[in-house]
Amino acid sequence: MDLRALRCFLAVAEEGHFGRAAARLHLAQPPLSRRIRDLEADLGCRLFDRIPTGARLTPAGEVLLVEARDLLERAERARERVRGAGAGRVLVVGVAAGAGLDVGPAPLAALRRSRPGLRVRLREAPVTDPSAGLRERRVDVALTRLPFDAAGLTIRPLGVEQVVAAVPAGDPLAARERLHVGELAGRPRFRLPPGTDARWRAYWLAAEDDSPGPVVASVEECLHSVVWEGAVGLLPAGASVRHARSGVAFVPVDGHPPSRIVAARPADCTDPLVDALVEALAEALAAVSRDARA
């Protein structure tokens, strides 16, 4: 499939409107529509239904949306690797559930100064992937959180982070300074999809696996479920800063173990540059922890 056609498809799928997608791509709408029609002809199925507000994905379009994102991401990674072979090394760091984002740019800047030509790119993983792309070899290092199945990976502990409950702002629990995780029992929880790592699902759900509630695949969907559906659930404490918004209250939680932040890489990785990157991240997070205690 033509990557340009896939980028057009992705823009229409995300905007839900051909006109807005065309503006985003700096294209006139007729050529955009032609590319979508050509893609549909190539695949032999319709990808969008026209609706009064714009365009809606068909079931076939929903399938292609997942595949298109994957293909475009792989193409971009291949482009960076090829460019990096001539211009310097590119290391990709996968980040799961906001792990390690408090380190700031200083350690990576220092690493680049000592290794001219090095580039470091962050890739945010969906909350359904605790390996942050490591299992598919999309990233060189993962900043992630335990617990999850870490077989075949080398794990470097970096620190811990408390968890908070995300609850509707109008909920009586929202006015509390702290709450016990048991107080969330019986409420609809936002849940991770079946097939997500079992240990990861159990930790973040902190309830029976058949608890009612919406299935989510991103932090944004977690927060939308709180606002729109009255669901509750656990998130890392940093979410109260990074994702603060009206309609959602974040309350510190007792009775649940803290989230353990780690750096992960394949057990068979012997790249000294990856070693140096992990060490820089570990030192930076240790410094953040010391400053927080001071």
From TrEMBL:
Residue span(s) of domain HTH lysR-type: 1-58
UniProt KW DNA-binding keyword: yes
InterPro entries from the UniProt entry: LysR_HTH_N, LysR_subst-bd, WH-like_DNA-bd_sf, WH_DNA-bd_sf
Record's keyword annotation contains Flavoprotein: no
Taxon lineage: Bacteria, Bacillati, Actinomycetota, Actinomycetes, Kitasatosporales
Protein name: LysR substrate-binding domain-containing protein
SUPFAM superfamilies assigned to the protein according to its UniProt record, in alphabetical order: Periplasmic binding protein-like II, Winged helix' DNA-binding domain
Alphabetical list of Pfam families matching this protein: HTH_1 (PF00126), LysR_substrate (PF03466)
Species of origin: Kitasatospora arboriphila
Cited PROSITE patterns: HTH_LYSR
Keywords annotated in UniProt: DNA-binding, Transcription, Transcription regulation
Family per record: Belongs to the LysR transcriptional regulatory family.
